[in-house]
Amino acid sequence: MIRHRLNEALKAAIRSREERAISTLRLILAAIRDRDIAARGKGNTEGISDDEILGLLQTMIRQRKESIELYEQGGRVDLVEQERGEIALIEQFLPQQMDEAAMRRAIDAVIADLGAGSLKDMGRTMAELRRRYPGRMDFARASYLVKASLQ
User: Fold this and answer.
1) pTM of the model
2) Closest Cα partner for 65 from 143, 138, 126, 132?
């Protein structure tokens, strides 16, 4: 479904000649194709799932945020704006992100469900959060909150 939305968005961007959108969408689709090829090597002939695509999109956003920090340090305002535009475009394909209060409730529920009680359970807790909330949670922030909850 996400794959279809991305292809349709690319077609629309091409029709309207939006260069930044075209290049960003082509980059996303190329990354998905690369992951599909890797998945075929592991026996998955259908390619990656929507959950994996959501994870890929979140990774791409995180990479762009890191680039923004570096560009700001280097005084490259033009590149900062380009990265922000790409982030805005990518975010259109992600489900609504959870706010911090919702993340805390979800983390508390997973910890209770798993019976997690120490930092040794952090990996298991994060894996369950990724399974339950793909694309809806900032897992870097969630990791910090899980660690604080388990200490």
Assistant:
1) 0.75
2) 138
